[in-house]
Amino acid sequence: MKQNALLVMLVLAFSAVATGQETAKPKPDEHTPAVIPLRVQVVFTEYDGEKKVANLPYIFTVNADERRAKPGSQIRTGARIPVSTGKDLFTYLDVGTNVDCSATLQDDGRYKLQMALERSSVSPDAQSAGGNPILRTFRVDLNPVLKDGQSVESIVSTDPMNGHVYHVSVTLNVVK
């Protein structure tokens, strides 16, 4: 009987000490993604010769996940333009800017961005033979690898219709 009472007192004393201790938080394993918020800026700049005719910045956040690149951030901005498809029939085309971006943390501490950029606009001086507007389109997929605070001018392209030169720059900052 004394042994049982002693055993009960030891169990109670041990449980009192154990409940007073903080429980350890589980450590992340390979199934738990490490997410790092990033601030990304994309700037489309258009030049007519030496003259800057457009400067369009887009700023957004995207979470870098060291194990997967999706899902990411998307921007859709613009207008729907009616285009005649026959007598009293119309369809609408999207015109504007689309930005898709996801990010992954690299082993060296830099971030790889997977980006799809699209910019379209109505050509102000041209119409098709049917009277519909001509749409100018710029599309690019790029994957810059940047460190915190780094900027890169990743694309320079010339529009064959009007000779305008497009620059695309990307800046990445870790959100602290």
Give the radius of gyration.
28 Å
For the record, the count of structural domains works out to 1
Strand content: over 45%
Structural class: mainly beta
- The N- and C-terminal alpha carbons lie at a distance of 62 Å
The helix-strand sequence is HEEEEEEEEE
Biggest β-sheet strands, sense, barrel: 5 strands, antiparallel
Portion in helices: 10-25%
| Average pLDDT over all residues | 82
Overall form: elongated
Runs in which pLDDT lies below 50 for 5 or more consecutive residues are 16-28
What is the overall number of helices? Answer: 1
Count of DSSP strands = 9
What does this 3D model show about the protein?
- The chain has one helix spanning 2-20; strands at 35-48, 51-65, 73-86, 89-105, 111-127, 133-142, 145-146, 151-158, 165-174.
- It is mostly beta strands.
- It has one domain (33-174).
- Strands 3, 4, 5, 6 and 7 form a five-stranded antiparallel beta sheet that branches.
- The longest helix has 19 residues, at 2-20.
- The model is unreliable at 16-28 (pLDDT under 50).
